[in-house]
Amino acid sequence: MEMLNHSKDASNQILTRTQFEKITDCLSGLAEKLRVSMILLVNSSGQIVAERVSSSWQGDSTVLSTLTASSYAASKEMARLLGEVSNFQMVLYEGHHQNMMMAKINADFFLAVAFEKGVAIGMVRLFTKKTIEQLLPILHQGKEDRDEIKKIFDHEFQNLLGDALDRSFKESLE
Fold it and tell me: Model-level pTM?
């Protein structure tokens, strides 16, 4: 299996190399425990943060990640209509040859796991939950880092903008 990073929106996803390596280790661990075709870590806007695909995977991961985010948005509304306080934690799609389980990690991230029909759904559920427990602190640290970077950037940007405006105003008066 090959590990790929498709995170393209740096404003949304700021992950350090260490965080990304920890994430890929978690996905690799899940893949080793189960016969999976594909594992996607997807953000709430449908972008792939990381993926793990088998050599037999023929699907379009980018389209699947977008559909995963859309499906989770729809399931959130279904949960609300059914009186659930929050979104469903896991959603299962059963097919003739492949199944897919989508699991909420937090409000910003989802895990999509495609696996062969012969793999026990209970095992997928159990190992996916354990993987989510491992991913939560890694992604939480990323949120703290993004918030800190945003504060620094906002403050730095305001200072630079103020200085540039002052210079421009002084030059226009001369």
Answer: 0.73
